[in-house]
Design a protein that fits this description.
mainly alpha, 434 Repressor (Amino-terminal Domain)
Length: about 120
């Protein structure tokens, strides 16, 4: 639970919530939320899961074991909607992977051109 307190504080502030508002959602005291954010106390597994649900992140993210915080809440979506989203995500991954390959090619070509121009000047 290395950065749990600071992670919780960032998520709470990003959500525009006060410590009191978060405490009310979790049926906790404001002091308990404050202790969590100061890393003076750590939540039970039950509260950790509730926090993950409130902020739409994974428990691994809250515990500092995962760097990606995005989790897509598909509650109330049809199976068809979920399949569409999965397909869209896969297309975006392929697009981004393709862009990274293209960027590497451009870097390599730029280096070759620079090297060639340096050699030509000599």
């Amino acid at each position: 639970m290395v950065n749990f307190g600071s992670t919780l504080r960032k998520l709470r502030k990003k959500a525009g919530m006060t410590q009191k508002q978060l405490a009310d959602k979790l049926w906790l005291s404001k002091a308990t939320v404050s202790y969590y954010e100061q890393s003076l106390r750590y939540p039970s597994p039950e509260i950790l899961i509730k926090l993950a649900n409130v902020f739409h992140v994974t428990t691994d993210y809250l515990l500092g074991m995962e760097h990606k915080k995005q989790v897509i809440d598909v509650t109330d979506l049809t199976d068809e909607d979920i399949e569409f989203l999965e397909h869209a995500v896969e297309l975006l991954r392929k697009k981004n992977f393709g862009q990274s390959i293209e960027q590497e090619k451009l870097k390599k070509e730029s280096k070759e051109i620079y090297s060639w121009s340096c050699n030509k000047r000599r």
